[in-house]
Design brief:
- The protein contains 8 helices and 20 strands.
- It is of the alpha+beta class.
- A hairpin with a 2-residue loop joins β4 and β5 (85-86).
- The two termini are 37 Å apart.
- 39% of the residues are buried.
Length: 399
């Protein structure tokens, strides 16, 4: 029988923490704050042992979802299970769940070793010293065991917080923007470290972030959230290459979206007409069924720039490539590994292009007349009834 609100489940281990293993399952999970619905009927299964990311802008419901899993918020409606065990109304300390916060929340008066051992000692666990030594080695903190948090760098403190959570062997480890306080270089290093540690320990990691690169670098599966719901769910490469909505296309990376009209559908590819009447091909599997007006999408790095009069360049002429002639460069920014162009099309829309700097290639300047080409297989189409601006971040201060 389901426990009443505020009542703990009796399925607990010797330490009083609920004993559970298996997939994390959220069923019809909803959270309302007065008239505002923060999370709206979420149905989600997170496979045991996976690295899962909840990705979305501020206010999308990702942090509220994490807090309900942790027991810091109670759902208005819905159920949370780990394997066969329901934890919807279990108190936070009764759940087989630990959380790593952005603020680390370390005890400043305790050493690294003592911080990591704190939870084990409180639960009167056996073999505290050996368990702590094992997790310090895993997180590469052996040589820092006797230091206090104030003597550590931000990345080292983050690893201590992670070690303190892992040593308790939770069924699910929740990470709430854990790298947000680190600088860019250290954040990228820690992304690799977190993935390595998750792979070695085999725990279920649920990572909340607004950082697309962070999610794609670490997660096996990403749920893109928008307005309390899952906009799209899948592997990072799938979400990036085959966005299902304009929000997903714009939020996960950058996309050029061109309004077009479906001209002809064939088994392998469809032909669509651009605003100037030019035709491009879209794989049939990437074209919404029964839709006449579409947004044709292509990522900036998938587009090549050519001299407008260069007849010898095969890239813009071979079969399987789409082409936009008679375009004009309006801006060029050298970024080191690539050059970022803004190119105005014949119908006066500016497209973004990232050309990798391989050496020897022509560097175009504003005012140069060019043509653009991109592979049919890199082209996708979305229902033009969707907002082309959805998912574009206007505020860098996301949470």
């Amino acid at each position: 029988m389901r426990p009443r609100r505020g009542q703990d489940s009796s399925n607990t281990g010797p330490t009083g923490v609920a004993s559970a293993s298996g997939d994390l399952v959220l069923s019809s999970l909803t959270k309302r704050f007065g008239p505002f619905t923060a999370v709206d009927g979420l149905d989600l299964t997170i496979a045991q042992g996976s690295f899962f990311a909840l990705l979305g802008p501020s206010g999308c419901g990702k942090t509220t979802t994490l807090r309900m899993i942790a027991g810091l918020e109670q759902p208005t409606v819905g159920e949370i299970r780990i394997g066969e065990h329901e934890i919807t109304y279990d108190k936070p300390y009764r759940r087989p769940v630990n959380t790593v916060f952005q603020s680390y929340a370390l005890f400043p008066h305790l050493s690294v070793r003592e911080n990591v051992a704190f939870g084990l000692k409180r639960r009167r666990s056996d073999s505290v010293a050996s368990q702590v030594a094992e997790v310090l080695e895993l997180t590469e903190l052996q040589g820092l065991a006797d230091r206090k948090p104030a003597q550590l760098s931000g990345g080292q403190q983050q690893r201590v917080a992670l070690a303190r959570a892992i040593v308790n062997k939770p069924a699910v480890l929740l990470l709430d923007e854990p790298l947000g306080a680190l600088d860019l270089k250290l954040r990228r290093q820690m992304q690799v470290e977190l993935k390595r540690i998750q792979t070695e320990v085999g725990l279920t990691f649920v990572h909340v972030t607004h950082d697309q690169e962070e999610a794609m670098t670490m997660a096996d599966t990403i749920a893109v959230m928008n307005a309390g719901r899952i906009e799209q769910l899948g592997a990072p490469a799938e979400l990036y290459e085959l966005p299902a909505t304009t929000f997903a296309a714009n939020f996960l990376g950058q996309s050029n979206l061109i309004r077009a009209t479906v001209a002809q559908r064939q088994p392998d590819a469809a032909t669509v007409a651009l605003p100037d009447g030019g035709l491009v091909a879209v794989p049939s599997g990437r074209l919404p069924a029964g839709i006449a007006e579409v947004w044709v999408g292509v990522r900036p790095e998938k587009i090549s720039v050519h001299e407008a009069a260069d007849r010898a360049d095969p890239a813009g002429h071979t079969a399987g490539r789409n082409r936009i002639p008679a375009a004009v460069v309006t801006d060029a920014s050298f970024m080191g590994v690539s050059t970022q162009y803004l190119v105005r099309t014949p119908w006066q829309q500016e497209l973004m292009v990232f050309e990798q700097n391989r050496g020897g290639a022509t560097i175009f300047r504003p005012g140069d007349r060019v043509s653009l080409s991109f592979a049919t297989e890199h082209t996708f189409a979305l229902d033009a009834g969707q907002d082309a601006e959805a998912g574009i971040e206007l505020d860098e201060a996301l949470g």
